Amino acid sequence: MKKALLLLGTCVVLGGCLDKQETSCSGESTQALIKDILTDGINKAIGKNGQNAERDMQNAFDGAKIRALVSQLNFAVVDVRTTKNDPDSSKKFCAGTLNITLPADYIRDANKARELMSLASLEKFAQDSGTKLEANRVEESIEYSVQPTDDGKKLFASLDNGSKSSAFTADILTAVLVKGVLEKRQLEVAKAEAENASREQQQAAEQAQVQHELAAIAVQKAGRNWMMPMAPSIWCGKVPARSAGPSCWPNSASG
């Protein structure tokens, strides 16, 4: 899975005449626009990860699944402050702390997927990438701007420097999506290894049986040779002069 840093985002909200509170850095409309920018960026980053994924993983990146996962995220910009407010312009420059809260099971599933891929845990990944991860909440300082149109009917918001936390969140959701594929792979590998081990055991047993049968045949053959009677040996020598017996007779040693 490749990481993709979210690009600068701009979003617009339509309405009647927007009041000053709605066009402020902490206004409800402004917060909604920032959420839309982040949501859109996360969706696109996950989609890009899917395009770069291995073939058997690509079906996991279904658009409906991605949207369902993203819909469970909670976005909030806290400690908001106006960093620049030009009296000659309606545009405001803002800063705040972005909190993205994920369901706890997303963190658990993503860590499991990363383990199956032999990757570091999310906690270690966050530390190495300079991202703040507290339990199931990702935090980051962000800068953004907000500006109404001259007629006050539209509001534009822009995230100035992208969002590292959103890219990190996209990686978490990507891991959640492919977890099922990775577990299926693991089961297939375990099944193949078990079948291979079974074949090896069967071959070893068959070979041992053949060796046993050959050994039994050898023992039987050796037994038959041991039981076979020996032909008597014949001794021939000089017969005493007065002997009328044969000139050759069985050696007494041979029985």
UniProtKB/TrEMBL annotation:
User: What stretch or stretches form a coiled coil here?
Assistant: 182-211
Keywords in alphabetical order: Coiled coil
Origin superkingdom: Bacteria
Protein name according to UniProt: Lipoprotein
List the top taxonomic levels of the source.
Bacteria, Pseudomonadati, Pseudomonadota, Betaproteobacteria, Neisseriales
